[in-house]
Design goal:
single chain, alpha/beta, UDP-N-acetylmuramoyl-L-alanine:D-glutamate ligase, Rossmann fold, 9-stranded mixed sheet, 16 helices, 19 strands, elongated
């Protein structure tokens, strides 16, 4: 995750831009006019949809985004241009066509469920003139091109072929979220990402088991000269086809709305590969991102901080992933606070982890949603405990703590006190041992509340070291 934050790839998104319009309300009665539900609208909002959702996801991840598309010269088209400008996106590759309807999808939602959707849009292919205007202005070097095809006419067969030819000529990877049954127009792409239903339609292979899945993936790869294929499998994760088939299981915990999940997968795959990840690594990242967005209502996005938090909640990653720097924990804390999570902080040397430590940390975690533990560095421990300490290296101590179910993140600090770290974390609850009950607690002026946890009697690192020393002495005699 660290390398992702160090890079800001420039990615071009080409595809069908649309307005996603949401009406949220409650249903308490049936209409007397017809046997239909009456929705009392309480809130409405509009978001960039279609390729716009890919754009939003890329921006959330930290990419530099350019956009090429064709819209109508109508109210919805103006709305889309205004939203793109607000996001700092150049409009030079956005073409207006007279008489074209800019796509708008209106969804009516009650109790986190879609009740009905109605669309107003044009689906005919864009004009040759619009194609040429965009192609003639594609002079900038991009790290990657994403084609988001919603079959609304922007990615016509001729335009798609020309875009892929342009990308291959410039040595730019081109990833495609496809639509339709004929993938001939995607020939030569670096990657396509159909879902299972789309793969069945495009190959004619009824995918009911892994053998048929493999046949479908290889068929798409070989028939259309596509370097890589990823077939998304909904609750069963995704399958990657390069030299072989690799399946990645799903990681979604709660599914409220799958709207736009494919856009998130495409954006995250492109972002990850542009930042130097392998396709498998990027696919795993995309799987986590999809797990985040399907837990939200409507077309949603996932930030790196949210993905990090989600990975932690699954407890499936290497414990090293949860040892954070000051900058990293700052980003994570911002995301947590936006979600109104109660943050608990404590700190210590934790030199030789023992029962007392674990019970102390378990009690701390119960006080909130997320437990962040500050760990004294080697130099800090030496200044506090003496030249013979610590027994265990700072990384070892942080790693073991991160492996505990009750610990969400660890941060190593080099100062004598964790005050600077506490200023970053701004915890809701600061926890200290019972021996601090009548002492001044560092960070008490920052935390909303200070609580104390009594240590388990007779359990301490010092007593363990003494016991080891006595055992060694007895063996020498």
């Amino acid at each position: 995750m660290n390398r992702l934050k160090e890079k800001k790839p420039h990615i071009l998104v080409v595809g069908d831009l649309m307005c996603d319009h949401y009406l949220f309300g409650k249903v308490e009665r049936i209409s007397p006019e017809a046997p239909v539900q009456v929705v009392e609208v309480e809130k409405e909002k509009s978001l960039l949809g279609g390729a716009g959702n890919v754009i939003n996801n890329l921006l959330s991840l930290g990419a530099n985004v350019s956009v090429a598309s064709v819209i109508g010269d109508d109210e919805n088209g103006t709305w889309i241009k205004n939203r793109l400008q607000e996001k700092g996106i150049d409009l030079s590759l956005i073409i207006e066509e007279k008489g074209r309807y800019t796509s708008k999808k209106t969804r009516v939602i009650s109790s986190n469920q879609q009740i009905v959707r109605f669309d107003k849009e044009s689906k005919e292919d864009i004009s040759k003139g619009s194609e040429e205007k965009i192609l003639n202005n594609l002079k900038e070097k991009f790290d990657l091109i994403l084609l988001s095809d919603y079959a609304k006419g922007v990615l016509s067969e001729s335009f798609t072929r020309k875009l892929i030819f342009f990308a291959n000529e410039k040595g730019i990877p081109v990833f495609v979220d496809p639509k339709g049954k004929d993938y001939e127009k995607y020939r030569g792409a670096t990657l396509i990402t159909p879902n299972k239903k789309e793969a069945i339609e495009a190959t004619g292979i009824d995918i009911k088991n892994d053998d048929e899945l493999q046949k479908a993936g290889i068929y798409l790869r070989d028939k259309f000269d596509i370097k890589n294929v990823i077939i998304t499998l909904s609750e069963n994760g995704m399958a990657i086809f390069d030299d072989k088939m690799t399946k990645i299981p799903t990681v979604a915990k709660e599914v409220y709305d799958v709207t736009g999940a494919g856009d998130t997968v495409l954006a995250t795959l492109g972002y990850g590969v542009s930042c130097g990840m392998s396709l498998v690594e990027a696919a795993k990242l995309a799987n986590y991102a999809a797990g985040v967005v399907v837990g939200k209502v409507g077309s949603a996005t996932a930030t790196l901080g949210e993905i990090e938090e989600y990975k932690k909640s699954l407890h499936k990653e290497n414990s090293e992933e949860f040892i954070k720097s000051f900058d990293e924990i700052n980003d994570i804390v911002k995301s947590l606070k936006q979600k109104n999570k109660k943050i608990v902080f404590t700190n210590g040397c934790f030199d030789i982890l023992h029962l007392g430590h674990v019970k102390y940390l378990e009690a701390s975690k119960k006080m909130g949603d997320v437990l962040i533990v500050g760990v004294n560095s080697n130099d800090s421990v030496k200044r506090l405990k003496g030249k013979d300490r610590p027994v265990n290296d700072q990384y070892d101590r942080a790693y073991i703590l991160s492996a505990l179910e009750c610990v969400d993140y660890t941060v190593i600090f080099d100062e004598d006190t964790p005050y600077e770290l506490i200023k970053i974390v701004q915890p809701d609850i600061l926890v200290k041992g019972g021996d601090y009950r009548y002492k001044k607690v560092v960070g008490s002026d920052i935390a909303k509340e200070v609580r104390f946890v009594d240590f388990v009697e007779g359990k301490s690192t010092t007593s363990i070291i003494e016991k080891i020393g006595n055992t060694d002495d007895s063996n020498d005699k």
